[in-house]
């Protein structure tokens, strides 16, 4: 019934478009010669995945919402009317929702729709669609996709691609009202080629909950940079307060645009009118006008974070679909050679056959929520059984040990993190640094080059996208840097070109989850007497700072020290990104968020510290103070949150005190220098961590108490420190070096500290 896409593209991936011949009216009527894109994905598996994949001047805007009643129909119809004022006869509104809501809302008695009048094999021009088009008084051309629910089956991906290829040549703006994106409909096909996607929600608990899955699905389609969340009817009676939504008190969704509540919207809807025409000066109309103007200025939409496995499942029924196994035979050969060299008795062509069999079987058998990694028992069991069937079907004799090696390799390649996968399950690995042709790993403080590598630059990018997919973060040439927290709590930071000059760079900092104070004592990071001192410091609610250089073990040390906090005390942690893994029954964790593409939705560390004060914790722990949040942290320590902790970068306890002053100045509170130093004196104990240069061993170097402030010879005020503990570099022993300890009495009386060896 519908024209296929198979003869449209001869290339699988398009990179920078250098030249485009005049496009035909319909897909398949003639083949446009599209040359390769350097930076951006345009098609995959021979399916369009970018607005640039379909030629034409028109812009495609999709309006959808996670549930009915959120106002997506109102937004779409009024948005189309606003655009039609600027572009008369150049705006078309398509209703693909399946129940004709737009037709009803605009008061259009329509007896025909696209699916019951068109024979796509005969359609070559937009004029042949006139029977299904209705001209609204606003200047908008309205086209119902279907009239009844039973017509939905005809709205296929092929149908959508063909339809849009026609309309992009004729209209400046194509507005589509669609059902929520998902497996059960073909909104995914519209989303792939949309220039803009508006996800409409209302200030309602259900709407806020459902939009998370909706946005996650759009992100997996590579639409994160083209998707905008619109809060409709903000301030509506009985709804969640706008401020609570924007401040993330009711949801962690970033809001890009806001439409205020207006009683005139409901009035216009009931009269089958458009509020932007009848009440042009209303706040709702003015806000929507501003949104339309901003969206019109958006250019160069990009594909970002596309989940290729999801696309493969969705696109399998498209007429043009070509499976990925055919995509790059050269890379398949290279990969087969490297793997079969490790597995005795396995030939290259047999490996390729098994890999294709396994990929197909896992796509059909595994649910999305089951794809948790190759070490997941369910995944590993199914992977093993699939490989066993493949070996039997292809009559490939392979021993048990070789078969287990094959399970390992295919699991890493098809479901895991490729050559990085084994390092995520080695508890001794603390850092991974990778580029496509080299992987460096740190174990026991020593760095070495791993045997494994990525095949090429594209391979490391594919694995990076797979690592980022569950985190909701993404990376692209427009935003070439990303920081994310992985499934095991590891911190990932990645850079891609143009920031990474010689190709993608991935750095992963891993944190041991099983380390405790006893481990640190056994490893020589501290002495037992020092551990008892730190326990007493925590019990007596001393304000504590862990300072140290990069990769000196500050986070691990803070984790272990915090284990002394009594279980009846509540804790709020604040981090960017979240790294702490406290073994405590009452921990509430907050994580800072970067702004979205519009520069909105940012939640800073400083805001979270202020929020934490309102959450009534007994203690506040800040993962790392870097700038202005230090002021709020010190204020918290000084106003009823004794015993709070944080980390910071500094090479000595003395420099930690100086840096605290500098960071408070970044808060720009207008305080005089002396007042800032006095504020910093609220810190009681500074623990200095260090990483030895020769051995890579991480340990405590010294511990100091803050005993007040003092002026130097130049009259400059600074913190006065009393050094208590010091590591003797010659012997490796931790020694008490203080002649006097000002907090000795409270440590003994309230902290149950019994230092029989203490002589001060």
UniProtKB/TrEMBL annotation:
Residue span, AAA domain: 59-219
Bacterial type II secretion system protein E domain boundaries: 418-689
MF annotations from Gene Ontology: ATP hydrolysis activity
InterPro entries named in the record: AAA_dom (IPR025669), P-loop_NTPase (IPR027417), T2SS/T4SS_dom (IPR001482), T4SS_GSP_E_ATPase (IPR050921)
Annotated CDD domains: VirB11-like_ATPase (cd01130)
PANTHER family: TWITCHING MOTILITY PROTEIN PILT, TYPE IV PILUS RETRACTATION ATPASE PILT
Similarity comment text for this entry: Belongs to the GSP E family.
Protein name according to UniProt: Uncharacterized protein
